[in-house]
Structure formats: structure tokens, C-alpha cells
Design a protein that fits this description.
Blueprint (H helix, E strand, L loop, with lengths): L8 E6 L10 H16 L3 E4 L5 H11 L3 E6 L13 E4 L3 H12 L2 E5 L3 H12 L4 E4 L4 H5 L18 E4 L2 H16 L1
Parallel strand pairs: 1-2, 1-5, 2-3, 3-4, 5-6, 6-7
Helix pairs in contact: 1-2, 1-6, 3-4
């Protein structure tokens, strides 16, 4: 009998530790917890493969026995943090590697984030990827809600509803519900 189990790919976006500011310990703990739960579900975690929330989430996923993929901006695999199982070197730079990740995943999770994270969020929205934002994680993750059209969308096109979660467990429940709807 053929195994028809769908491989679920979750992208996690958020700030790195460079160049001028380290991601806070609180955000890294949250990213670790979300990564751990993603790994526990047997889903594959995709992120930018470097430091900050990317490293924290990859560590959590790996500690739960999950698989991690880092989409790197350069051609140098050594840029990947130690918890990346599969480093994908792109040579595309920061912006285009983010587009590649967004196109690859089934859903996107946002934790904190600076301008680069905002670009990834916008790319996911433009491509109608399910998006769940971790409330209380700071920066753009905590300010986006005030800007939403009709409280749910980035603009009047209503490509995909932006969802919010108050904790990692609620975030995973929302991902399961969203992904179940997509697979039906």
C-alpha cells in the first residue's frame, strides 16, 4: 500500500541577530517553543537558516526530532546555524531567498520581526499562503493587527485572512485547522 501522507512544510519568519540588534531572549524562547511543537507534529520547519529566531526555532524543531531546512541568501552553507539539517544555498541575497521560502511552504508563522520579516509577510499574503502571527512577540508581529483591512487582511484584495495566536499551543491548533482545510 502506498504511503499518501502529505508532507507539511511550515515557514517561520522573524528577526535575526544582525546587524545591529540581537533578538530578545523572550522572542527566542517563543521561537524555540513553536519550533519544538512543529517538530513534534512531524512537520518540516523552513526558515532563513541563520541566527536569531531562525536558530531558536530550528533548535526547538531538532530537539523534538523534526527536520529543519535553512534557505540561505548566499552560496556558503557554513552560514547555516548548527540546527539546520538541510542548508539550501541560493546565492539570491536576502530578498529573493525569502521569496523562495515563501513559495516553498504550506503556511507561515511570524514571530516578532523587522523590515525583512515584513517583506516576507507581504510575500506570503500576495501568494495567499496561510499566515499566523505570534501575538506578544514584539516589533511588526505586534503592530500589524492595527493596520489590517477589516481587521483580517493586509489590503482590500482579501487574499488570505491573517490569524493571530496568543501562545505556541494555540498557534499549532490554528495551523492544524488551516492545513486540514487546505488538504480537504
Amino acid at each position: 500500500m502506498e504511503n499518501t501522507k502529505k508532507i507539511i512544510r511550515i515557514g517561520l519568519i522573524g528577526q535575526s541577530d544582525r546587524p545591529f540588534e540581537l533578538a530578545s531572549k523572550k522572542i527566542k524562547i517563543l521561537a524555540y517553543q513553536i519550533g519544538f511543537l512543529i517538530g513534534k507534529e512531524g512537520w518540516i520547519l523552513f526558515n532563513g537558516g541563520r541566527d536569531g529566531v531562525m536558530e531558536a526555532s530550528a533548535k526547538g524543531c531538532r530537539n523534538a526530532g523534526g527536520i529543519t531546512v535553512g534557505i540561505l541568501p548566499s552560496l556558503d552553507a557554513s552560514e547555516a546555524n548548527q540546527y539546520v539539517d538541510i542548508p539550501i544555498t541560493t546565492g539570491l541575497g536576502m530578498g529573493m531567498r525569502s521569496e523562495l521560502m515563501v513559495q516553498t511552504v504550506d503556511a507561515l508563522v511570524m514571530v516578532g520581526g523587522k523590515n525583512g520579516t515584513l517583506k516576507e509577510l507581504s510575500a506570503a499574503y500576495m501568494n495567499s499562503k496561510p499566515i499566523i502571527i505570534a501575538k506578544g512577540s514584539g516589533d511588526f508581529a505586534d503592530s500589524i493587527e492595527q493596520l489590517l483591512f477589516e481587521g483580517k487582511y493586509l489590503d482590500s484584495r482579501k487574499n488570505v485572512e491573517i490569524q493571530f495566536a496568543n501562545n505556541p499551543e494555540e498557534l499549532i491548533k490554528k495551523l492544524k485547522k488551516t492545513l486540514n482545510l487546505l488538504m480537504c
